[in-house]
Amino acid sequence: MTEETAVRTVQIKEDITSRNNAQAASIRESLIREKIFYLNVMSSPGSGKTTLITQLLNRLRSDYRIGVIEADLDSDVDARTIAQTGVKVIQMHTMGACHITCQMSREALDALGTQELDVVILENIGNLVCPAEFDTGAAENLVLLSLPEGDDKPLKYPLMFEIASAVAVTKLDTAPAFDFSPDAFRANVHRRNPEAPVFFVSAVAGDGLDELEAWLRSRINAVIGRE
Fold first, then answer.
1. pTM score, two decimals?
2. Residue closest to 172 by CA, chosen among 126, 206, 198, 197
3. Architecture of the domain spanning 12-224
């Protein structure tokens, strides 16, 4: 008769994410103590993250010292685009990873150098699933969704919208070509996250940028201690 071998089941995902989130809390607390605002920008590929970040940088860079971390599987296309604004920027390659962990976030912050900065913006990997599961240590999460993606996405990718500090619908200038209901989208976001403000913007036409900028300035100033 063969003796049964005890088998231990390990919940790997829960263990990894819980350890990641504990370390991320340490990053967040440290940056807030140093009065550095850290913004994590997430969306699907092609939503216009880089274009919107560029427009916001042009509006903010005269008042804040800003650095940008560009995360991609490969290439430095977005980093070169951001560099044209004159802000400090580094490219982070994830070597195939579909998300940024807090350890990757910490290493990128160290490589960027935050000592002389007020604001750091992380452009996360284009993905509405994996990045939502890993806390980067950012003070706020800005989630983008391009209007052509549809007003039902908060229902299909709930976690991303649940962790959002704010949501911005981009490419508002394409509205005439698509069946997208702003009211339905806002309602779908608020089913997942009642507190998240929703902005409708066009980086090309400039629509809605004043409101998004005002929200961002209020969050920055709350961390760095500026009125």
1. 0.91
2. 206
3. 3-Layer(aba) Sandwich (3.40)
